[in-house]
Amino acid sequence: LEIEELAWINIPDQERAGNPVNIHVAVGEEKHELQGEVTRIESELEEMSRFARVIVTLPASNIPDELKAKVIPGLFVDVSIISKELEQVSMLPNTSLRDDSVLWVVEDDKLHIVEPNIIYKSDNIIVIRDLKHGAQIITSDLNIVTEGMSVRVADEEI
Known about the structure:
Layout: E1 20-27, E2 30-45, E3 52-57, E4 78-81, E5 89-93, E6 103-107, E7 110-114, E8 117-121, E9 125-129, E10 136-137
C-alpha cells in the first residue's frame, strides 16, 4: 500500500481487530473468495516501490477442504481490504481536479472555484467530503476561468 493509505488500516491490538479482507484466489479456472484479516504491517517500506507491506492472515478454517491442498503460502492472490464506511462523501474522477487542487462547480449558472476537502486520492479517483448534494462539476476544459463567471450547462441529451 502507499503510505497515505495506511491511515485506513487497523492493526489488531487489545482494543480492535484488524481490517477484514476478501482474498480472491484463482487456481486454474477455479475462482474463489475467502475471508481473512490484516494482522500487521511490516516495519520497513519496500526499497524500490516505497510501498508498505501489509500482512494478511487466512485462517485454515476459512479454506474449503477441496482447496486446502491448492492454497499454499506464497500463492499470488488479489486482496480487497475492507475499511470503515464513509458518510457524506462524494467520489469523482481525479480528472475533475484543476491544477491538482480545485474543482470548478456550477451554482446558479455561475462558475465557482472550490478547494475540496480531499480525504482520499488515487490515480483514478478522489473522495471528497462536504460537496453539496447534486453539485454540478465542470469537467470540460475551458481556456479562461474566473470566479463567478457565467456558464451555460449543455443539455444532457446532446
